[in-house]
Amino acid sequence: MNKTVNQKAWFFVIPVFVLVAFNAIIPLMTVVNYAFQETFGNNVFMWEGTRWFKQIMLSERFHASLGRQFLFTFIILFIQIPLGIAIALTMPKEGIGVPVCLVLMSMPLLIPWNVVGAMWNIFALPDIGFLGHSLNALGFDYNFTQQIGDAWFTTILMDVWHWTSLVVLLSYAGLRSIQPAYYQAAEIDGASRWAIFTKIELPKMKKVLTIAILLRFMDSFMIYTEPFVLTGGGPGNATAFLSIDLVKMALGQFDLGPAAAMSLIYFFIVLLVCWVFYTLMMRNEEKS
Amino acid sequence: MAKVTLKGLSHSYLKTQSSDADWAIRGVDIDWNDGGAYALLGPSGCGKTTLLNIISGLITPTKGDILFDDKVISGLSPVERNIAQIFQFPVIYDTMTVYDNLAFPLRNRKIPEEEIKVKVHEIAEMLELSSTLNNRASGLTADGKQKISLGRGLVRSDVNAIMFDEPLTVIDPHLKWILRSKLKELHQKINRTMIYVTHDQTEALTFADQVVVMHEGQIVQTGTPVDLFEKPKHTFVGYFIGSPGMNVLPCKIKGNDVIVNGKKIETHQEIKKNNFNKTEVGVRPEFISFSNEGIPVKVLSVSNTGRHKIVDTESETGKIKIIAKSNEDIPSGSAFLKFKKEYTYTYGDSWIIE
Description:
The structure holds two protein chains of two kinds.
Chain A: H1 10-35, E1 37-39, E2 45-47, H2 51-58, H3 60-90, H4 97-110, H5 113-124, H6 130-137, H7 148-176, H8 180-188, H9 193-221, H10 225-230, H11 242-252, H12 256-282
Chain B: E1 4-11, E2 25-32, E3 37-41, H1 48-56, E4 63-68, E5 71-72, H2 78-81, E6 84-86, H3 98-108, H4 113-126, H5 142-154, E7 162-165, H6 173-190, E8 194-198, H7 201-207, E9 210-215, E10 218-223, H8 225-230, H9 235-240, E11 247-250, E12 252-254, E13 257-260, E14 263-265, E15 279-283, E16 288-291, E17 295-304, E18 308-315, E19 318-325, E20 334-339, E21 344-348, E22 351-352
Parallel strand pairs in B: 3-8, 3-9, 6-7, 7-8
Antiparallel strand pairs in B: 1-2, 1-4, 4-5, 9-10, 11-15, 12-13, 13-14, 15-21, 16-20, 17-18, 17-20, 18-19, 21-22
Helix pairs in contact in B: 3-4, 3-5
């Protein structure tokens, strides 16, 4: 079928374009502006070229927070994706259990991020928090405000609690869309449960899992509010992920130039990883 | 290979059943010989897929027994029954190659790789898949994929029966013809019991030696394609098979006489009893001709299909279709019809009176 060419249709794009310009493009351009110049306020700018970029790329502080960021993201992906799939596989397929499970699963997703941080902060307090107190009562020396391992453990546990549901819901949707004939054919072909999982369920879930991994990668890579409320990046800099470090640099130290350069590098890393991942996952889709 | 017997099989998807309508299938008895080609024919929702899934073991029937070679196998799983089934939509394992797809049922049964290789190549040859064996199965067209499903069913040489659940639904018409003759050819070659479910009379009549016609969960007739055409045992078989279907007209029975529209007509059977709520006469359009006397009708329209003419007429108690030769002169306005005695049957409460 031939599509009608109608250049007037561009007018319909204008409102969106204006909106996006104001909430994304213009602020981003301001950041670009800061990244190449030095300012002492009063709207006075001096050209610095790529100086801030070099400074950030060579800074050990940036390397450290980038490293922490990747480590955190890999750990939570490594836990949340398999756990999410496993929960989705065990969820009921019909009856009253379906809505009950779906609602329960959605609960953590509905809680505002700073509330999640505050909840877990109180929950994990070593003296009065349920989790912290119980762990100490069981004989573990647990204190997330002072010990690095405990701080990481708590942050990861919080993120798993908050976001695994998203993976569950996406996987569940993917599983439900598999035609019953596939299971029946597998049964007749004598496939084991493991073969059904690897040869039917996983391939059929590929698209939703790609989305799930992308979303979880982006969100966890940009995580700010929850660890900020929970640990404030501490103890020391132990849980200062990229965004926490960035805010410290921009608003704490008021190093606007390096902070702007760091934002852009940060942005390109997210973009690059997403693009590479998506291209790899989808490279065989065109053919089929 | 096995003889398939079904005894008093009934199934309901509901927990409790209060009326006949609650049963998906009811009171089904079937005897199918080893190595035969059978078709289950009926409209959507008549229970034919349910029946097929009961035979393959995907559904446990509410009542009744399934026997393979006179051994009850009702409690066994599909794997233990050792059957193959091909579904309406092609089921392939996307991530595997065509070869791996065909080898899958054998590998699951721990057959040595050498033997698998021979078997897969043999089946691929039969289905003309040899050139694509190393391709990823997901890249194939719908009929290619359905051939793989078919191949996975045929690759095991020891299966008791191969079942087809409307396997040609998603296939293009011109390929349908090819695949259908392929199936027939395969059946002659490997001589295994094949059961074919369809709502398409052409598919059923060309594929099977014996056709089972189902209607509202019951078997209404079992027979060869010729039986079903020439002597429908139920009015449903009459109008479901044939194009156009059988004419069914209300009639009155007085003693031994059958009266349609006030005229006495001759039918195949001798009427011995008359204790029905509803009596009808059925005659196929092929067995009606214009005459100087008989049932008075008004000719409504004539459509020429090329091979023959289909004439629509109206009698006092309903429409009658007639198939006439394409060179025959069709009277216009009023006319009289004569039914061929040998192919005119009387039905009581929809069942043939015998």
